[in-house]
């Protein structure tokens, strides 16, 4: 197969990244119609429909294979330029590193890894917030090159290593505990006490409830998809919820949040998944992630 | 048309909310197979496919109309019970209020509104983080009953009111400014300076660049979809970015972040969209939103 046309590949990748032909045109400084022609030509070359035209536009199964291929090729090309010392010759474009991170890590220890990794320039981080179920698909489809996830299951073509575990505490405001848990934490009180939940996929609160008196009826639940608002609303007494210890340190120390049951936490292991591909920027990020994890996550018991 | 079977409606709504038959089964304490049978019966009654079976499961166009209908009916029923004083008779289930909020509001002034609205119980907030483009579709499809958005365009069946405006400052660490903007902020320096961007839909940084020396080539960009990590990475010198003033107050006061150009902010008007439907909980939330907006957002010039 001859090498694919790089302008066409760029148009295709920009459509998927931006969600529309117009966004792709803006990103590449050409018209939406030029984008459309390039995509059509690429689809003709490969004999496959690559994009589902919709709102937003998405890659088809064939498109996802191509996306992964394109990202791998450009990573290898960057590596080649780096090893050939070519970055001096032309103005260096930073290498884009798309990475999936779970929200509690992104708002916590991962910031240190991101900062260390980018300290020397040459890397443009493209972070996505995803839960572990979805990040495996992103790795497989080539939308990200690495992911932090609670799942130890390796994705094809990727390596996986254990980073440490994040401790979740069941926290609430003291006034909330007095009101709802004066009689203790059991099936009956848990069924009445409002609970804070990150989103529909967040089962952590239910895991905690299951461990404390069977399966209560669904308590009143507030869905708050922001770690910052989650902690603040817990402090204001809207509900109890499972919060990573590093996000609530100050609140626990000041007494604004207390454990609803002393010393009954849930530890969640985190894993670093990355493509098995020679890439200096990816190696730099992996090292920074390992370092930050060593300092901020708990080692296995 | 006879009234629709409420167990079937609940199964349908739970599939869309949870994304799978299994999640719906867990939420309603029945098997996935029972969920599947109820959905099938509802689809037979209406003569329409309601759910696209996929990962995740999604409502079809017909399903979205039904979803909005179901939420409106249950809101009216709640209102009826409230007015009939029926909440005393049976244990009160809190009224679910699904609301779309932009990330910068959720991590800022909206917390106060949420807290005030829920202070008296009876309301379960179901918050979604959405940009303004998407929240119109969520209102139309009945997935949310209200939304905070930067768009003044009313959605059919909804009222819209102006809340005030949020001021965005172009901020960076002092060392970053010394390194990249010592020669001033213009097309040439903006093309070189790394920029922080919330996600692919966030055009705020480009708006600012367009106002300061034409359209530079795309600078190196880090995508950081968390307001908390965004502010921290700006502070650590990874890039400059547009940050709402209320999220950066402490950092600006301490000198950890400075404006890259003095007094050149962007003000974004925010609007409250809500269904025109009689609902005491929705009215309570609207009042709390208005109050908090009055205290924290800027009045029109």
UniProtKB/TrEMBL annotation, chains A, B:
Gene3D superfamilies: 3.40.190.290, Winged helix-like DNA-binding domain superfamily/Winged helix DNA-binding domain (1.10.10.10). Residues 4-60 form the HTH lysR-type domain. It comes from the Bacteria. InterPro entries: ArgP, LTTR, LysR_HTH_N, LysR_subst-bd, WH-like_DNA-bd_sf, WH_DNA-bd_sf. Keywords: DNA-binding, Transcription, Transcription regulation. GO terms for molecular function: DNA binding; DNA-binding transcription factor activity. Belongs to the LysR transcriptional regulatory family. This is Transcriptional regulator ArgP. It comes from Pseudoduganella albidiflava. The gene is iciA.
């Amino acid at each position: 197969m001859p090498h694919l046309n790089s302008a066409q590949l760029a148009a295709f990748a920009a459509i998927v990244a931006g969600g529309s032909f117009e966004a792709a045109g803006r990103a590449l400084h050409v018209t939406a119609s030029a984008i459309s022609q390039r995509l059509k030509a690429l689809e003709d070359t490969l004999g496959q429909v690559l994009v589902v035209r919709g709102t937003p536009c998405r890659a088809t199964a064939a498109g996802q294979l191509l996306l992964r291929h394109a990202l791998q090729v450009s990573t290898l090309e960057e590596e080649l330029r780096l090893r050939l010392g070519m970055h001096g010759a032309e103005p260096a474009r930073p290498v884009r590193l798309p990475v999936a991170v779970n929200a509690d890590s992104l708002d916590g220890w991962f910031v240190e890894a991101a900062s260390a990794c980018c300290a020397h320039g040459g890397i443009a981080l493209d972070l996505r917030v995803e839960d572990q179920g979805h990040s495996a698909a992103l790795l497989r489809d080539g939308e990200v090159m690495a992911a932090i996830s609670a799942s130890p299951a390796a994705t094809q073509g990727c390596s996986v290593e254990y980073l440490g575990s994040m401790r979740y505490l069941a926290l609430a405001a003291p006034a909330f505990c007095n009101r709802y848990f004066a009689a203790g934490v059991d099936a009956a009180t848990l069924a009445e006490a409002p609970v804070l939940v990150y989103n529909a996929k967040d089962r952590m609160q239910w895991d905690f409830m299951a461990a404390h008196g069977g399966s209560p009826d669904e308590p009143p639940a507030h869905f708050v998809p922001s770690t910052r608002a989650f902690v603040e609303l817990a402090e204001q007494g809207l509900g109890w919820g499972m919060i990573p210890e590093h996000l609530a340190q100050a609140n626990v120390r000041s007494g604004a949040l207390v454990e609803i049951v002393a010393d009954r936490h849930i530890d969640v292991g985190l894993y670093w998944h990355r493509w098995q591909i020679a890439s200096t920027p990816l190696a730099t990020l992996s090292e920074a992630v390992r370092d930050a994890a060593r300092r901020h996550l708990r080692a296995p018991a």
